[in-house]
Amino acid sequence: MTRPPDASTQILVDDLGDPAGPSLGDDAFHHLSRALRLRPGESVRAVDGAGGWVHCTFDGSTRLVPTGAAGLEAAPEQPISVAFVPVKGDRPELVVQKLTELGVDRIVITSSERSVVRWDGERAERHRRRLEKVSVEALQQCRRLWLPRIELIPLASLLADGAVLADMDGDRSVEVGRTVVVGPEGGWTDRERAEASRPAVALGPHVLRAETAAIAAGVLLAAARERGGV
User: Fold this and answer.
1) In this predicted model, what pLDDT tens digit does every residue of 125-175 receive, in sequence order?
2) Residue ranges of domains in the chain, CATH in brackets
3) Under 8 Å between Cβ of 221 and 82
4) What is the 3-state secondary structure (H, E, C) of 3-60?
5) How far apart are CA 76 and CA 143, in angstroms?
């Protein structure tokens, strides 16, 4: 992989291969020109969210000017996932923002028997799209090249695939695998614990808020991957 050169900022675009230069959508152009107030000639790294990048300059128009430097970062060999049960307010946005910054590859919205907030049908898809936008903004800020997938998956399916529950009664030394599921503030039911095929993991000695636990799970998985333990 060719290491991307430093740039003033990073922006997600739809097409890196356009010979005329990457085109900026309305949101991207507004971000560069109004929010960041970039001046013509400043550097921008255009990315596609799938490892590809092109070094460009901003000339004040809706199309970036490629400098010739480009590359592709391979996908992680050991992808990691955090699933969480949504809670009230904007805390799911905080979770997605931080998990994106931490390098989590898949962020899953699930539900449980004690869920207070339930996202179903069109409402669930609407929230998922909103969280995708949050993830895009975080990717641009943290200079990450791979955009995480945000999915809606039932708890039973996650557990059937070997996901590990985060639980106060779990073992802090357990191997976390590649997917950790964080429950609602009321915790898991006995039936949900019984459905898990792997031992639960404890995220620490104290009772954590649901959003803190999801972020802690991301830190745990990212650290395990760095050690080659997932």
Assistant:
1) 999 999 999 999 999 999 999 999 999 999 999 999 999 999 999 998 888
2) 9-72 (2.40.240.20), 81-226 (3.40.1280.10)
3) yes
4) CCCCCCEEEECCCCCCCCCCECCHHHHHHHHHHCCCCCCCEEEEECCECEEEEEECCC
5) 16
Q: Do the Cβ atoms of 22 and 15 come closer than 8 Å?
A: yes
CA nearest to 83, candidates 197, 164, 186, 144: 164
Beta-strand pair 43-47/52-57? antiparallel
Cβ atoms 87, 74 nearer than 8 A: no
Give pLDDT tens digits for 185-217: 889 999 999 999 999 999 999 999 999 999 999
Average pLDDT value for the chain: 93
CB 13 within 8 A of CB 58: no
How far the first Cα of the chain sits from its last, in Å, is 23
Q: Could you say which DSSP state residue 147 is in?
A: P
Q: Say what the pTM is.
A: 0.93
Cα(221)–Cα(83) distance, integer angstroms: 12
Note whether 100 and 144 are within 8 A (CB): yes
- In angstroms, rounded to a whole number, what is the distance separating the alpha carbons of residues 79 and 82? 11
| DSSP 8-state secondary structure symbol assigned to residue 74 | P
Integer Cα distance of 12 and 200 in angstroms? 37
